[in-house]
Design goal:
Layout: E1 2-10, H1 14-25, E2 30-33, E3 45-47, E4 55-57, H2 68-73, E5 80-81, E6 85-90, E7 96-99, H3 103-114, H4 118-137, H5 148-155, H6 159-165, H7 168-175, H8 179-186, H9 201-210, E8 220-221, H10 225-238, E9 242-244, E10 249-255, E11 257-262, E12 267-275, H11 279-286, E13 298-305, H12 317-320, E14 324-327, H13 331-342, E15 352-355, H14 367-371, E16 375-382, H15 393-409, H16 416-419, E17 430-433, H17 435-442, E18 476-478, H18 492-504
Parallel strand pairs: 1-2, 1-12, 2-9, 6-14, 12-18
Antiparallel strand pairs: 3-4, 5-8, 6-7, 10-11, 11-12, 13-16, 13-17, 14-15, 15-16
Helix pairs in contact: 1-10, 1-18, 8-13
Amino acid sequence: MTERSDVTIIGGGHNGLIAAAYLSRAGLKVTILEKNSEVGGATVSQKVFPDYEARLSRYSYLVSLLPTQIVEELGLSFTTLGRAISSYTADASGDLTVSREDETLNHESFKALTGSTDEYESWQSFYADVQRIADVIAPTMLQKLPTRSELKNRINHPIWDEIIERPLGESLEHRFSNDLVRGVVFTDGLIGTFADAHEIATNRCFIYHLIGNGTGEWRVPRGGMGGLVAELVGICTTNGVRIVTDAEVTALRHSGEWQIKTVTGASYESEFVLANFAPQHLAKALGDEPPASLDGSQVKVNMLLTKLPRLKSGADPRIAFAGTFHFDEKYSDLQKAYAQSAAGVIPDRIPAEMYCHTLTDTSILAPDLVAAGFQTLTLFGIHTPSSLFDQNHDEVKAEILRRLLNQLNEYLLDPIEDCLARAADGSLCIEIKSPHELEKDVSLPRGNIFHKDLSMPFREDGTAPSWGVETEHPNLFICGAGAIRGGGVSGIPGHNAAAAVLEQLHLTV
């Protein structure tokens, strides 16, 4: 038998769940088909180390782009927590602490690193200008796409050309003179993006990092990302959404209505389909030629610690690890690592950043672990593209982990291995996920967390009005990271795909 719904959503990640919540709230019959045995996609929280009651956000990390509007409209109690420290950067040339709240600390830290106040003044000026972009773009993210000219006219400032039209590297080289300061700024253009500083791809990543909710503040999800998934599942279930797991879609055809076949042989039919999986996989289901997959470019390392390591700099680890901890991320480090990886060589020094979830939110740990002082660390190694792993995957992964830990230990009094918890079999509680494993585990093509290259958050002048989710096929919409404005843990494409369906049905979100 063929089961019929008004809307079928392929993929049960957070965007699909958000779309289902909006559509079912409007009275539509919705079915979600999820390939894996549980929903959540890359936003799941999992017991990564079986011997310990610690549920880590295994694939995703912090939250910036999830609009408060979505949380309020869906009545979510999901909360995110701010971090007083924005970042701490360790380097042989000196460390740099950036606070979100303490201007005196920032002033002193920049002066100690550079010998003057010039770089901090440049920092303040640059981010004040970037805020002009965030103030204009952030409110448009849950609306139809504005045009390039509309946004440019609203911003009406030279920062438009610096961030939108010209490569980010040009602005950083003009604005800042210190190699380390340039690097700290540049990192926001790189997570998930394999590019040189003079490629516009880094601008797009930078914009998405800085516009979330108009502030760009990256916040810690209380309870981990699984907390968001659990709430959304609850709403969907209450609204009558049917969630089918272990239901990988193998074929998608349109003949008046959409017919969907799954690997189990089950058939589904609906007027609308929302694709909450990568455009490459969608093309395969449609029988179309899949677009090229851009390489994902990061490894993710999850760790469970019995204690935080002390730093050789003397900085308080509860401050240094509370924000984003950078190491080997000078501007020159980042550029060199890109060049080496692009040449097919593991970088001599792999730029990396990490954060400690549990310094802000202990709820992901069992009470006995909290009482014993356990902590988690999440590390991202940058410029480690999928292509590096195409030959000798396991050996390359092991070598990258070895280098990352050795590099980190150069800044620590306590070797990180001495701080890691141990499983019952004596193994260290640490795992590394390569781009290939991100593709295998959560269907990210070539490990690309954005599914494809990010798009600017506007449409070109003269193009048709759009939600940024439309396809060339009738009643088929992208509701995942592959949509325009789809990158990051945001829920934005889920909302916008639902809005496109409801608009066509003359209903409201």
